[in-house]
Please model this.
Amino acid sequence: MTKTANVKYVYIDVVGFTRDRSAEAQSDIIRSLNRSVIEAVKNTYMGIGLSKVFKFLEKLALSYTPNDEVILFLPSGDGMCIAFINFISQYDIHLRLALNILREIDTLNQAESGTSRKFTVRIGINEGDDLLVRDINRKSNIAGDGINTAQRIMSLAEGGQILVGDIVYRKLHNRERYMGSFSEPYEVKTKHNRSLLVYQFINDSYIGINNSTPSFAAGLQLSMPSDTVRLIIYSAYYGAEGTTIDVTELLRSRIVDNKLEILVENEELGEDPIYGVGKELVVEYSYQGKKEKVVVSEHSTLSLP
Model:
C-alpha cells in the first residue's frame, strides 16, 4: 500500500568540496559534516541524546506507521537531506535545524587550523506531502515533488546561505521570531518552465549565516506582482469520503505566468488516495484579490484563473 506523509526537508551540500583538497581532507570534512548534523539535530529536537537519534534510524530499518514522527537521513555524496516525517506541531523544526547546522560548522571551522578542512554548506528548505518508499538497497527513502524542490532550492544557495520554498515562507514569515527575516521572493524557472518562488532567510543575529545576495539573483526582479494581482493557491486537497491528500505544493509548482492548468487524474496528482471511488479536487485560491473555491471532478481539467 502506498504511504504518504508530511515531510519537512533540510537539504545541505558542501560548497567546493573537491576544490584544492586532498582525498584525506575530503574524508575529514564528511566526518565533520556528519558530526555537525548529529549535534544540530540533538540541539534542535528538544535536546535529545545521540542514542535516540539513532533509534530513529533503527526504527526505520524495521517498520513504522505513516503517523510516526521519524527523522530520516539521506546521504548524497558531499551532502545530505534531513527529512522530518510527520513533525506537524513543530512548524519551524527545519529552519531551526538549518541554523543550528551553520552554528556547529562555524564552531568547527574556528577550531580548525588547516584551511583545507574548513568548509561551508549551502542549505535549501522545503516542505510537502511525499511518498515513503524503499529504495534499491531496500532502505527507507522518500520520493516526490517536495524533496525534489528542496534540492532545487539548495542548488541556488551559496556558502552559509539558507533559501526556503514558498510553502515554508508562508508558514513562517508572520511568526514573531521570524518576522522581517525573509527577502522578497525570487521567481525562478525550472527546467520544465515552472515558476518556483524562493526566499532567502536573512538575520544577522545567527552565527555562521551568509546574508549576502545569492549570485543567481543577479538581474532577477525581487518584487513580484502584489497579492491583489497574482494567482495564489491557498490549499488543494484531492480525494473523497474524508480520505484526501494535500496537493497544495504540487499545484503551486504548476503555475506558469499566473496560470494553472492540470488534469485531475491520479497520475497527475501523485497517487490514488482512495481506490474505487470517484474523487474531487478542492482548491481555495485568489486572483486579482478575490478569494474563490473551486471543486473539480476526477477526469476533468482544473483551469485557473
